[in-house]
Specification:
The complex is a heterodimer of chains A (143) and B (511). Chain A is an all-alpha fold and 143 residues long. Chain A is built from 5 helices and no strands. Chain B has one domain. Helices cover 73% and strands 1% of the residues of chain B. A two-stranded antiparallel ribbon of chain B has the order 1-2. In chain B, strand 1 and strand 2 form a beta hairpin. Chain B is globular. The chains are: A mainly alpha (143), B mainly alpha (511). At the A-B interface, helix 1, helix 2, helix 3, helix 4 and helix 5 of A face helix 7, strand 2, helix 8, helix 16 and helix 17 of B.
Chain lengths: 143, 511
């Protein structure tokens, strides 16, 4: 079933890709092939392979329980927040929080999570910023 | 003779303090990454690329660092195979078969050092193979026109799924997806934006480094979150015991190592094979050839030496097409190609004439790294076994954060981080559905140059599409591509089921 849905999604994707390719505005100066041809060839392969996937599905993969999926979704949300907060809160604070969250969700105790978070963030800051001179996001406190 | 003098020049380049230090660092990090289940050569190198890049290292030093990681990971994979019966990365899968039984018999130290020697032999001969074979391949590649290059790229994509691929439709899907992603951005020939949907950030195209780190490193973090495997290895299993194997054991294995080095190298050079297949073929051939008493699988030293020599030789062999043709045959070499492209160096035949310092410096560094790895992996192997004690609930947050830092360090843009997270989720889903990730990476890397070659070939011939199959060279490349695509449909299932006799969900994605 998963493969059938996946294949169907692929077919839709390829149709969307063709439509987007046809919408490319050609400039008046073009070569013999133009900017549309290759994307359309790719879309054809994409559609064809998706159709095969949908028609001849593999055995069902092992999907995690809904709780585990929520776990991954929560991690994605935290990572997005991390990316957005990085310029606002600064590297050290944001990283400490994100790393502590991941450590906690992977089964660390509360204390260990905090230690992992702070350790990772300060460690990366010292090695990459202070020692190697990589520029990281500056927060309100300058780090 | 010219080769030797080139190699001499290479050693002059490689033997600076900075490069030696980078090689040492790379070997060390690589061995650790190989040893840790969940980090393999391809995601290990992927995490380090942005760092090497942002540190402002030049082409040769970056390559030295990253190929040392690559070689190191090939060494390191065996450690957890032998001690824990969990392959540290995919190519080390076959080492479990005899390595772990040896450890159970109390011969863990012997198995580790024997496999270290086998790794050294494999990598050493493969590096010589690289020196001898790559320039020959360059001579052929100089005959290639745009049509032949287009066929060559097609060949790379069609064979990349590998002989062990069970579902070629999924490989084709992955390749087309990667190529499609590469199309995003301003068309280089006419200057019109494609698939950007008005988003200014996309005019430059997607940064392939972002795609690589997301697909390889972040998806791994998601896999760990899904399975909630936060634990560490059982400490009682990490006893090594006596470290040096008796001479008789080494002697017994020498013919095995030599044969499998050759075989592994060949598997590495051929498109669509790579190190995992190299070690698989080596092990199965040795089993047929020398296993008269049925001792393979019960802790036969030759069964440890064969796959290790095989996978390290394949690692060297896989560099041949990457350097000489610019077309990688395996996952990690695809990632290494990304390094070269990020540094504005186009691999391929011209690399050998225009940047000989890069090529020969790299090759010399491989020799040096190989000796360093031998030294690190036999007397100091105890150090690396301790690394296995680091539980993944601590390791994985660090991996995730280092990936973010690397990407943020390059561009300083939140948009890139969001794209990376997107790729991470996509990578997780695709891995669940058993879609290979390497063709996606290769597609984003090579998409534009594949299209350029197509358009150049057809423009030169005044819009005649038949020019693509006009020369014998192009025709033979197409023939190989088609055979390579169809062959797995016939034999893929058997090969894969034999290779994956031991199921390993968390092992690295690919070599």
């Amino acid at each position: 079933m998963s493969d059938r849905i996946f294949g169907l999604f692929g077919v839709l994707l390829s149709i969307g890709f063709v439509l987007a390719a046809l919408a490319i505005e050609e400039s008046f100066l073009s070569d013999a092939v133009g900017p549309k041809a290759f994307p359309i060839i790719i879309a054809a392969i994409l559609g064809l392979s998706s159709a095969v996937i949908a028609l001849r599905p593999d055995p069902e993969p092992h999907w995690p329980a809904i709780g585990r999926l929520a776990e991954i979704a929560a991690a994605v949300v935290v990572m997005i927040l991390y990316a957005e907060m990085l310029p606002v809160a600064g590297f050290v604070a944001a990283t400490a929080f994100a790393a502590a969250y991941l450590a906690w969700r992977l089964g660390s105790s509360a204390l260990e999570s905090v230690l992992v978070g702070v350790g990772t963030s300060v460690g990366i800051y010292v090695i990459f910023h202070l020692a190697l001179g990589l520029s990281l996001a500056r927060g309100p406190w300058g780090f | 003779m010219e080769t030797l003098s080139n190699l001499g020049d290479g050693f002059l380049i490689a033997l600076t303090w900075q490069n030696l230090a980078l090689a040492l660092l790379g070997c060390f990090l690589g061995t650790i990454m190989g040893a840790l289940p969940g980090l393999g050569p391809s995601n290990g190198v992927a995490i380090l690329i942005p760092l090497a890049f942002t540190l402002g290292l030049g082409a040769t030093p970056s390559l030295i660092l990253l190929t040392s990681v690559y070689y190191g990971a090939m060494y390191g994979g065996r450690i957890s195979s032998i001690l824990l019966n969990i392959p540290g990365d995919e190519p080390a899968m076959m080492t479990c078969l005899d390595g772990h039984p040896m450890a159970k018999k109390g011969l863990a130290g012997e198995a580790l050092s024997l496999s270290g020697i086998a790794s050294f032999v494999g990598a050493f001969f493969a590096t010589w193979g690289l020196i001898l074979l790559a320039p020959q391949l360059v001579k052929i590649a100089l005959l290639f026109g745009p049509a032949e290059y287009f066929a060559l790229f097609a060949l790379a994509f069609m064979t990349l799924g590998g002989v062990s691929s069970t579902n070629q439709a999924k490989s084709a899907f992955a390749a087309a997806l990667g190529l499609g992603l590469a199309m995003i951005g301003v068309d280089t020939q006419t200057g019109v934006p494609r698939f950007t949907f008005g988003e200014v950030h996309l005019y430059d195209g997607l940064d392939f480094l972002v795609a690589i780190v997301g697909l390889f490193a972040l998806s791994e973090v998601f896999i760990f979150l899904e399975n909630r495997h936060g634990g560490n290895a059982d400490a009682t299993k990490l006893k090594i015991g006596k470290l040096y194997p008796p001479m008789s054991m080494i002697k017994q294995c020498i013919p095995t190592m030599l044969r499998t080095s050759f075989l592994g190298f060949l598997a590495g050079v051929l498109p669509g094979a790579g190190a995992s297949l190299g070690s698989f073929i080596s092990y199965s051939m040795e089993k047929r050839l020398v296993d008269k008493d049925g001792t393979f699988g019960t802790g036969d030293p030759r069964g440890v030496a064969a796959p290790e020599a095989g996978n390290n030789a394949a690692a060297g062999g896989a560099l041949v097409p990457m350097l000489a043709l610019g077309v990688p045959g395996s996952g990690t070499t695809a990632v290494l190609l990304a390094v070269l492209l990020a540094l504005n160096i186009t691999p391929g035949p011209l690399l050998f004439t225009q940047n000989p310092d890069v090529v020969w410096g790299l090759i010399a560094a491989l020799f040096i790294a190989n000796f360093m790895l031998l030294a690190m992996n036999i007397p100091m192997v105890g150090l690396f076994t301790r690394v296995l004690m680091v539980p993944s609930r601590i390791l994985m947050p660090i991996v995730a954060m280092v990936s973010f830092v690397g990407i943020y360090g390059i561009s300083g843009s939140t948009f890139d981080l969001l794209v990376m997270i997107g790729f991470g989720v996509m990578g997780w889903g695709l891995r669940k559905l058993d879609v290979p990730l390497v063709p996606i990476i290769l597609g984003t890397l090579l998409g534009n140059s594949m299209e350029n070659n197509l358009r150049r070939a057809i423009t030169i011939d005044n819009g005649n599409w038949w020019t693509l199959v006009d020369s014998p060279l192009a025709l033979s490349l197409w023939a190989i591509a088609i055979i390579g695509f169809i062959l797995p449909v016939v034999i893929g299932r058997t090969v894969k089921s034999r290779m994956h006799a031991r199921k390993d969900e968390e092992g690295a994605i690919s070599d």
